[in-house]
Write the structure tokens for this entry.
Amino acid sequence: MSKPAAQMNRTPLIQRSNKDFFIGLSRAFGGALVFGLPLLMTMEMWSMGSTAEEGRLALLFLMSIPLLVGLSHYAGFEETFCMLDDVVDTFVALAVGFVTSGGILWMLGVIGPQTAADDLIAKIAIQAVPGSIGALLAASQFGTKEEEEEEKQRFTRYDGELFLMAVGAIFFAFNLAPTDEMLAIAQQMGLAQVLGLLVLSLAVMHAFVYAVKFSGTPDTPESTPQWSLFLRFTIPGYAIALLMSLYILWTFGRMDGASLQTGLATTVVLAFPAAIGAAAARLVI
């Protein structure tokens, strides 16, 4: 084949690749807006950028990068073929999160020319994390049925299932941890209620995925006993929800000055929606 002919054959492929990228990028902005909007319009999150310790926010941002790399591998807004592709898409998603968060916060009057530079960066950066998650989840939420089936096949591995639960848990925890209600609820609960909520979280988490047969329920052999699924997925998933809840509460300073009992109770309270988020993530992504 002559060189001009080969170049002509490559041109449609390049054009298609560029088109797919821009479609994926458009979905990413849509995902960032859908997933980030509740927090962008939450007053506690506006102040969190100013009141939370800078070191903790920086650590949260740095720790979100490997999370986003993994999410890009499993459910990114475009197909990737190597680790470098996932890293590139991660930083594209972060850029989308920053642009979306900054634009909406400015539109709402939360930030402006009068905002100090460090406060401006903190307010946008903390909102960019859930926005970036939404950007990378855009393909699974807004993609075609064929693309959704491809994404589901990636999560058939056990580690993929656990990772997916971690994403769902941290996203739900991120949405509720900044609010004062988490601590207020924990302070008015007794020990029996805390233990009851823990048991309820496990039961609801397991029922969401295996009992009520929602659309997207993972395929499992009929011979698999429920106790096996409970031990292999529900217990580890709830442990992940607890850890994610504890970390987010610490990041936002909600554990500062709290007694051990209050801290544990607050973690269990936040782990309730986080566990539901972990279970729901296995169904919808």
The chain has twelve helices and no strands.
